[in-house]
Design a protein that fits this description.
Helices cover 36% and strands 28% of the residues. With 192 residues, the chain is of the alpha+beta class. A hairpin with a 2-residue loop joins strand 2 and strand 3.
Length: 192
């Protein structure tokens, strides 16, 4: 298996995996939208240099030339720019530009935020998520961050246990939509 930076050509596969997370988030606004149009918004986003390498970093796991997992994150100070860019594609997809998909702040100060990590269900249980998670300290360090943050739904204790096994610890509560999440953080760098 190969772990590498995502390219524009990976956007379709990344969107498919991103939708696993969108479905789990169970956001009311998403339930009201045409999902094929929302996919256009996501695809246009994951085709941009800003999402791939500039403001955010998207990484994929590839097996037999198929994207089987991905992670996406950014330095906390880029959260608003990333969300604004994504929302700028609403009109291109035939959706009203007034819609706000992601309205709740997700990051904590001074962290590299792991927004999304997902593995194709057919490939789960083979360590792909762990291999993706293992690259995050280098990504964070390259972005001059000594902490990685992420949110884990209270309804997903299995994922939380996995993150704890990688050294993440609870740093607080965050509410996204109508779901409660624990915000976990892990220190990275020379002294971690």
């Amino acid at each position: 298996m190969l772990i590498r930076k995502a390219t524009k050509d990976d956007s379709s596969a990344v969107v498919s995996l991103f939708n696993i997370i969108i479905d789990e988030m169970d956001l009311d606004i998403v339930k009201t939208l045409d999902r094929s149009k929302l996919d256009i918004v996501f695809q246009k986003s994951f085709e941009t240099p800003e999402f791939l390498t500039d403001w955010a970093q998207t990484t994929v796991a590839v097996e037999n030339d198929k994207v089987v997992g991905f992670l996406y994150g950014y330095p906390c100070e880029n959260e608003k720019k990333v969300n604004t860019l994504m929302h700028s594609f609403l009109q291109d997809a035939g959706l009203p530009p007034s819609i706000v998909i992601f309205s709740d702040p997700e990051t904590f100060p001074n962290e590299w935020y792991l927004n999304s990590i997902a593995v194709d269900p057919e490939y789960q249980g083979h360590g792909i998520g762990s291999k993706l998670l293992a690259v995050t300290p280098n990504i964070a360090a390259n972005q001059n961050k000594n902490k990685i943050g992420l949110n884990v739904d209270w309804e997903n204790p299995r994922a939380e246990a996995l993150y704890y096994s990688y050294g993440f610890r609870n740093a607080g509560l965050i509410i996204l939509g109508d779901h409660n999440y624990n915000h976990l953080q892990k220190s990275v760098g020379k002294n971690s």
